[in-house]
Design a protein that fits this description.
Elements: H1 4-14, H2 21-36, H3 40-45, H4 53-66, H5 72-76, E1 78-81, E2 84-87, H6 97-109, E3 116-120, H7 126-134, E4 139-144, H8 147-159, E5 165-168, E6 183-188, H9 195-198, H10 203-206, H11 223-235, E7 236-245, H12 251-260, E8 264-270, E9 276-283
Parallel strand pairs: 3-4, 3-6, 4-5, 6-7
Antiparallel strand pairs: 1-2, 7-9, 8-9
Helix pairs in contact: 1-2, 2-4, 6-7
Length: 284
């Protein structure tokens, strides 16, 4: 792997059993851009450019990880989300493009730039940090059950230069002694993947990403939505908004749960791929 062109050939052969040709080329471009600290356009234009020994070693190390099925973001140690950079590791889910749509939906509805916002199940902190970055006057708090995930989220808050209050708590079993402020907006992208869904997922998700942040019991797939909705009834301010990312096959069931809890103006929104992906509702 002496040149950029050699790297493309090596990655193509090394990842042939895991990704198709287009995915492999996209992954190789991202890796080279990171390792060479240059643009994808430069990489494409200068395929004969020679790689240093250090660069070759780094590329080989990343390829070795990718060949196990490890997601690219874990191999690189970061992921992009809403124009920002987030550190990721196996204690956090990799931020998804659909969740960027949820962030945009929230921003579209924020009238008071000094709103108080609570993100439940924050993981990398991508939702909370993106909202704080775009609403510098807001008071943003982020909750997670995982101390490791919160440590990563704190690093990401520092990396992106935002001030967020972090809370270690289990929404399914809240300690009454933990003080959680009332909010104008509560948002959550909780676990919602069922075991049936798991059968259709790529192994680089099911084998590497944290199961506690992904999966729910087959018999009670809305367990987190129910708990968060009940919490929101007493912790959302009057006319406060509740936003969820949801399981695409459970849009109607999620909406009905919120209606049954007494929430109003429940709206299910599709993502750019036409799948039921988000819900918004109001606590009057």
């Amino acid at each position: 792997m002496n040149t950029i062109n050699d790297a493309f050939i090596t990655f193509k052969h090394g990842l042939a059993t895991i990704y198709d040709v287009q995915e492999t080329e996209a992954i190789t471009l991202m890796v080279l851009a990171e390792v060479l600290n240059t643009s994808k356009a430069v990489i494409k234009a200068f395929g004969d450019r020679r790689l240093t020994l250090t660069q070759q070693e780094e590329l080989n190390n990343i390829l070795t990880q990718l060949k196990t099925g490890k997601p690219l973001q874990y191999a690189l140690g970061y992921a992009g989300f809403y124009g920002l950079k987030f550190l990721v590791n196996p204690s956090t889910l990799i931020p998804r493009p659909e969740t960027e749509e949820l962030v945009q939906w929230i921003l579209d509805f924020v009238v008071n730039k000094a709103s108080s916002i609570l993100d439940i199940g924050t993981g990398t902190g991508c939702i909370a940090i993106s909202l704080q970055k775009n609403l510098p006057g807001a008071q943003v708090s982020a909750m997670d059950i995982s101390a490791d995930a919160l440590n990563t989220a704190k690093e990401n808050a520092a990396l992106n230069e935002v001030d967020i209050s972090f809370i270690e708590a289990d929404i399914l079993n809240l300690d009454p002694e933990i003080q959680i402020p009332k909010s104008d907006i509560i948002v959550s992208n909780p676990p919602y993947v069922t075991l049936e869904d798991k059968k259709r997922m790529h192994p680089n998700v099911t084998d590497f990403e944290p199961h506690t942040a992904l999966f729910v019991p087959e018999k009670d797939p809305l367990i987190f939505y129910r708990a968060i909705a009940e919490f929101a009834l007493s912790n959302l301010k009057e006319n406060g908004l509740l936003f969820f990312e949801i399981n695409e096959s459970l849009g109607e069931e999620t909406a009905q749960l919120l209606i049954d809890k007494g929430f109003k103006d429940v709206e299910v929104r599709k993502d750019l791929n036409g799948r039921d992906r988000m819900v918004k509702t109001i606590r009057y």
